[in-house]
């Protein structure tokens, strides 16, 4: 992956793979971005898949055309620059390498097939009063699936149970969400639930949103148009000492809010949860790529 300078105020990000004379570019390029720091991550899943992640967004996956030859290749990690004009200056920082399974920020990527048809109950449990027995949250094909049907409102939510550092330190929570193309009248969400209100992000038909408030009191509500049958990427940053949340959709900062805590801070019972809501008819959605880590 690389940043290409096309002018003083515009740059492009492109990712590509070359494998035994087969060159393929990622389908999604980031064009005309503002010159600033960007976080790039390349994930390798031998022997079949290479994944490109830019600013927390999975922009494409490359399927290796000759997986039977993968083990015979010698891969090298490199950084550097190419110059096509008279001069160029670039910067690198915070370089990290390691096994994906050892990444401490991966809370759950739902890839452990031993939990297919259910979920890992060492990491998740149903959120009290947010579970109807006629709906389902279960792992399948490397994602968490939310399914609910009926004629009245229904919801299913799981709360994370293995957060040792939160809410002692500031933290970020990331996830990818998408809806089934045939989903009607519902959404999938990630967010926080506390005694002082909620802060959440979600995806409904062709609309991504983040919301913060207490019941009917909307403190923050921002929505953007998206293709809901494609993966959308969310990040929520929380500063517990200030009860403050900052929201990102597809790498874009869309705003922040603070819940009205009497002490100015979140209480220790504030929880992080994922799930879905059915407003009418039926909904099926997908959740993946749960990353949780302390803010540096």
Short account of what is shown:
Helices cover 0% and strands 52% of the residues. It has 296 residues and is mostly beta strands.
3D structure, described in words:
With 296 residues, this protein is mainly beta. Helix content is 0%, strand content 52%. Strands 9, 11, 12, 14, 19, 20, 21 and 23 form an 8-stranded antiparallel beta sheet that branches. A hairpin with a 2-residue loop joins strand 20 (244-249) and strand 21. The mean pLDDT is 83.
Provide keyphrases for this structure.
7-stranded antiparallel β-sheet; 8-stranded antiparallel β-sheet; mainly beta
Give the helix/strand class. Answer: mainly beta
Helix fraction by DSSP (H/I, runs of at least 4) = under 10%
Over the alpha carbons, how many angstroms does the gyration radius reach? 20 Å
Q: Major β-sheet, in short?
A: 8 strands, antiparallel
The ordered H/E elements are EEEEEEEEEEEEEEEEEEEEEEE
Strand content: over 45%
Q: Ranges with pLDDT <50 over ≥5 residues?
A: none
Basic shape = globular
Q: How many angstroms separate the termini?
A: 24 Å
Tally of individual helices? 0
Whole-number average pLDDT? 83
Number of strands: 23
Task: Record the SSE blueprint.
Blueprint: E1 2-5, E2 11-14, E3 16-19, E4 22-25, E5 30-33, E6 40-45, E7 49-54, E8 57-63, E9 106-108, E10 124-131, E11 136-140, E12 143-149, E13 154-160, E14 171-179, E15 186-194, E16 197-204, E17 207-214, E18 217-225, E19 232-239, E20 244-249, E21 252-258, E22 271-278, E23 282-294
Antiparallel strand pairs: 1-2, 2-5, 3-4, 6-7, 7-8, 9-23, 10-13, 11-12, 12-23, 13-22, 14-19, 14-23, 15-16, 15-22, 16-17, 17-18, 19-20, 20-21
């Amino acid at each position: 992956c690389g940043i290409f300078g096309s002018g003083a105020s515009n740059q492009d990000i492109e990712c590509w793979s070359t494998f035994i004379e087969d060159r393929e570019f990622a389908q999604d390029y980031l064009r005309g971005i503002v010159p600033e720091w960007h976080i790039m991550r390349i994930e390798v899943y031998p022997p079949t898949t290479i994944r490109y992640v830019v600013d927390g967004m999975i922009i494409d996956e490359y399927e290796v055309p000759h997986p039977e030859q993968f083990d015979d290749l010698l891969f090298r990690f490199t950084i550097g620059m190419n110059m096509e004009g008279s001069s160029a200056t670039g910067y690198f920082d915070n370089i990290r390498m390691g096994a994906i399974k050892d990444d401490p920020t991966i809370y759950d990527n739902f890839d452990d097939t031993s939990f297919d048809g259910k979920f890992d109950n060492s990491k998740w449990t149903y959120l009290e009063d947010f579970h109807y027995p006629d709906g389902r949250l279960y792992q399948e094909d490397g994602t968490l699936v939310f399914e609910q049907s009926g004629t009245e409102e229904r919801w299913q939510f799981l709360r994370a149970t293995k957060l040792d550092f939160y809410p002692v330190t500031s933290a970020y929570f990331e996830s990818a969400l998408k809806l089934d193309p045939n989903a009607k009248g519902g959404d999938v969400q990630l967010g926080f639930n506390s005694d002082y209100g909620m802060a959440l992000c979600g995806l409904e038909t062709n609309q991504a949103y983040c919301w913060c408030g207490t019941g009917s009191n909307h403190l923050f509500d921002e929505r953007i148009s998206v293709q809901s049958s494609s993966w959308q990427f969310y990040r929520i940053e929380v500063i517990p000492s200030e009860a403050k949340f900052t929201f990102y959709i597809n790498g874009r900062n869309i705003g922040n809010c603070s819940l009205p805590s009497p002490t100015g801070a979140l209480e220790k019972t504030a929880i992080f949860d994922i799930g879905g809501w059915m407003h009418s008819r039926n909904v099926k959605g997908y959740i993946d790529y749960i990353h949780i880590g302390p803010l540096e």
